[in-house]
Amino acid sequence: MLIITALFVVVFAIMIYSMAKHRKSLGHPPAKFTGPTGRIQWFWAFVPFAILLFIDFVLMGIPAVHAIIDMEDTKTKADMVLKVTGMQWKWQYEYPEAGVKFISNLSTPREQIENKAVKGEHYLLEVDNPVVLPVGKKVRVLLTSTDVIHTWWVPQFGVKRDAIPGFLRETWVRIEKPGIYRGQCAELCGKDHGYMPVVVHAVPEPEYLAWLDKKKAEQAAGAAGADRAWSKDELLAKGKDVYEKQCSVCHQPAGQGMPPAFPALTGSKIVNGPLLSPAGKIIADSHVDRVLNGKANTAMQVFKGTLNDVELAAVITYERNALGNSKGDMIQPAQIKSLRQENS
Amino acid sequence: MNTATTTVPGHADDHHGEYHPSGILRWLTTTNHKDIGTMYLTFALIMFFVGGGMILAVRAELWQPGLQLMQPEFFNQLIGVHALVMIFAALMPAATGFANWQIPLMIGAPDMALPRVNNWGFWLLPPAAILLTLPFALALFGIGEGALATGWTFYAPLSVQGGLGVDFAIFAVHILGVSSILGSINIIVTIFNMRAPGMTMMKLPLFAWGWLITAFMLIATIPVLAGAVTMLLTDRHFGTQFFDAAGGGDPILFQHLFWFFGHPEVYILMLPIWGLVPHVLATFSRKPIYGYKAQVWGFIGIGVLSVIVWAHHFFTVGMPVPALIYFMFSTMLISLPLAVLFFCWIATMWKGAMSFETPMLFATGFIVLFGIAGLTGLVLADVAADAQYHHSYFVVAHFHYALFAGGIMSVMTGVYYWLPKWTGHMYDETLGKWHFWLTVVSFNLTFLPQFFLGLAGMPRRIPDYALQFTEFNMISTVASFILGLSQLLFAYNIWKCVKGGEKATDKAWEGAEGLEWELSSPPPYHSWETQPVVK
Fold first, then answer.
1. How far apart are CA A39 and CA A196, in angstroms?
2. How many C-beta neighbours within 10 Å does residue B65 have?
3. Could you tell me which of B220, B38, B195 has the C-alpha nearest to residue B113?
4. Does B291 contact A34 at a Cβ distance shorter than 8 Å?
5. Which of B236, B240, B287 to mutate to test the interface with A (most CBs of A within 10 A)?
6. What is the DSSP letter of B100?
7. A197, A279: one domain
8. For A19-77, how does the pLDDT look when each residue is reduced to its tens digit (9 = 90+)?
9. Structurally, how many domains does chain B consist of?
């Protein structure tokens, strides 16, 4: 910045001086020269070249190369790995060593966005499940995406890296001070690109480990739920919660959708079709197939990777029995679990 | 060579312009370079207002946080189509309009070398513009989701997911590409074959040199863009997987192909009009152009370098370290030929006898503001720093300094400079000066705050933002409306000048040099039927 400001001032000072001095209205006679003449003038003509080369490739260039090598070195002395998966329009965080995985959604209420409520302090930069990292540790961040390209950006870290579907990219951070750091997706990724923030809580290591244990316990409880039979009311209650977090952005809270890009679920042929084949298998392009496996080349995601068995069973049951639909049937988390095993 | 003066009885009437259809048929069938130039320029001006209207709607939405006027989908459509319209339908046709009007006049040729190709090149544009904007109208009738909503860059896989607006935009790009290539071939052939006797390549006006390099760049890069969007089309509809990792493709391949075209495109937009800046500076400094040869080699240097630096548009995708270092240093290398141009321009003004009519105001304004674009570009080239600036409003501000100040303001320079020649009337100098000052001040007030927004962490292409960005966005929105409205002054001034005004002399400007100023103002319908001899 200092360099370019200095260049700007010096170069344009010459021009402005000339504009002030060499005016016709001041009676300045026009000179006739068209190029450098003589050895000294040629010498001076090449001085700016030399200066510019020096700035580009030495003054800026050498530190820049070191910065790149440092920035791209994700592996040396990395203390832990955080996997970040971008999806329309939320982030999933995974701690592979601890086996912890969760989704982080925008938590700003819709009313604030539509100007029906007063906007909070962290409007659009707040989430339901922030990612928690220990301070002073080098965190290797792996990035990928399930649908389109997203970019994970926290301005205060100076880190920005694209999350590309089908590929793994990496970068790293080391947070010096505890605190809450906020950023957001930086690559246009569709309708709600402006609504997928990144919030990082940086805490001392003991606190981080305690948080990790708590998450593990929550997750174990969630997985265990798949092994018991759920009542329909339980599934509906849970399903409503999942639907509002995962589905209502596109299919809308009342299920009317936003056709043609995001079809309605109310009265939908797919949702009101048969649940499973008589043999208990997934029917191609059926409701269960769509929710588990998504639809290629559309914004409909593959949810079997992001939701657990209970959540999947709950949301499918909810969609079939709410939002104006009344199929009356239900699917158990245990069924999803076995379908998942058959397919993998 | 000089077919216009061959006397074949019976054909003489056609060639001498006593007969041509009038009314709409004249414009549909014309092969006259002046008519076609006028059509290009008019089309560009109209589309400039269309694209400007779109972005004012965007700025209005960004006036404060929250969603006020539109939903995010529509917002995304506006930003992408704004860019495509401004680039392909405003700036490029404006430059081609200049080429049509001026290259034959400046090199002493009776017309462009391929007049019918010229006609076709123009008439491809309106259908393309309709294709680009039609999805907006279709959406009103419930067909499709509206125009392309991926930004002008079409990045896969977002564009694979998109609606029919993407297909419309792909075909529009195809047609615009054909038009550009036709125009480029015509310009190359004209410059190589139809120069006046005695006009060697090293006596060619710089404007023609700028265009010549541009034409080669267009021919080199437009087919790559056409290929990339065709691959996208087959990915969308015919099951190919060029950009889908599941089928062995790579989304980043699209970015490489796109920017292989996209970076030269930046210079394609600017080189032709940079070529006219030295003419204007020399005219109003009443002094010959400084460093003619250096500028020619500067143009060539920029043209060559521009095709080997493309990946600096996506440093954040995660490239290998050697690639990052290569693209960083090759990008920085562009600062050398650019610096040559800057120093030549300033040296052209140095010790001249300057006066500041509107074209000179625009030319000097262009140099300073484009300097800001160049220097912020140097910062963006630094990979480690780019990690912070990329995808942010810093980039938005940077390329508007390049494309509005560097591109559109130099088009305005050219319009004011040559209007007296084209119409035979002087434009209104007072209005022109008002237009300049309003434009410069409101332009800076619009885009300077965006540098700070970017540094503060505001990503680009978001319809709604966090509260800390509010003040700068408000300044930017207010200024953008002043900027937009002051362009009406520009349109009015042109209109007024076409309709009448003080009679322009043949030379129009005291210090003007070049063949075009030896013709009457306005020049006859067919000029240089006998080629002048350049000593």
1. 61
2. 20
3. B195
4. yes
5. B287
6. H
7. no
8. 666 665 665 666 666 666 666 777 777 777 777 788 777 777 788 888 888 888 887 88
9. 1
Reported as a pLDDT band with limits 50, 70 and 90, residue B388 is confident
CA distance A50 to chain B (A): 10
Q: CA-to-CA distance for B46 and B43, rounded, in angstroms?
A: 5
Backbone angles phi, psi at A313, to 5 degrees: -60, -40
Residues A149, B157: C-beta atoms closer than 8 Å: yes
Q: Mutation test of the interface with chain B: which of A7, A22, A66, A184, choosing the one with the most B Cβ atoms within 10 A?
A: A22
Sequence-separated (6 or more) residues with CB below 8 Å from residue A60: A3, B332, B378, B382
Asked if B135 has any chain A CB less than 8 Å from its own CB, the reply is no
- Judged by CB atoms closer than 8 Å, whether chains meet at A147 and B318 is answered as no
Q: Give, rounded to a whole angstrom, the gap between the first and last alpha carbons of chain B.
A: 19
ipTM: 0.86
- Cβ neighbours, 10 Å, residue B262: 20
CA pair distance A26, A179, nearest whole angstrom: 62
CB proximity B63 to A under 8 Å = no
Are the beta carbons of B288 and A34 separated by less than 8 Å? yes
**DSSP symbol at A285:** T
Contacts of A127 in chain B (CB under 8 A): none
- For B20, phi then psi, to 5°, come to -155, 155
- Per CB-CB distance under 8 Å, the chain A contacts of B150 are 188
Q: Which site among B295, B388, B513 would you substitute to test the A interface, given the most A Cβ atoms closer than 10 Å to its Cβ?
A: B388
Residue of B208, B101, B216, B100 whose CA lies nearest to B200: B208
Q: What is the pLDDT of residues A157-192, one digit of tens each?
A: 888 899 999 999 999 988 888 999 999 999 999 889
Position A18 in a domain? no
User: Do residues A84 and A218 share a domain?
Assistant: yes
Residue A85 lies in a domain: yes
Kindly state whether residues A127 and A251 are assigned to the same domain: no
List, as ranges, residues 191-210 from B with C-beta within 8 Å of A: none
Name which of A68, A88, A110, A169 to mutate to probe chain B: the one with the most chain B Cβ atoms within 10 A of its Cβ: A68
Any B CB within 8 A of A29 CB: yes
Q: Please indicate, yes or no, if residue A26 is contained in any of the structural domains.
A: no
DSSP character string of B469-506: GHHHHHHHHHHHHHHHHHHHHHHHHHHHHHH--SBPPS
Burial of B12 (0-12, 13-18, 19+ CB in 10 A): exposed
Check A52 against B339: CB less than 8 A apart.
yes
Whole domain around residue A124: which residue ranges? 80-222
Give B-chain residues touching A184 at CB under 8 angstroms: 459, 462
Question: Which of left, alpha, beta for A68 (phi over 0: left; psi -120 to 50: alpha)?
Answer: alpha
**What's the CA gap between B208 and A100, in Å, rounded?**
64
Q: How many domains does chain A have?
A: 3
- Examine residue B522 and state whether it is found in any structural domain, yes or no: no
State the Cα–Cα distance between residues A39 and B28, nearest whole angstrom.
58
Report the residue of chain B nearest A88, measured CA to CA: B158
Q: How many residues does chain A have?
A: 344
Question: What is the pairing mode between strands A169-174 and A90-95?
Answer: unpaired
Helix (H) or strand (E) holding A194: none
From chain B, pick out residues whose CB is under 8 angstroms from the CB of A301: none
pLDDT averaged over consecutive 10-residue blocks of chain A (344 residues)? 63 64 62 65 74 78 82 83 92 91 88 87 90 92 92 89 92 90 92 92 93 89 79 87 84 83 85 84 86 81 83 89 86 85 68
How high does pLDDT run on average in chain B?
89
Q: In whole angstroms, what is the distance from residue B473 CA to residue B100 CA?
A: 40
For residue B374, give how far its alpha carbon lies from the nearest alpha carbon of chain A (Å): 9
End-to-end CA distance of chain A: 54
Whether the CB of B76 is below 8 Å from some CB of chain A: the reply is yes
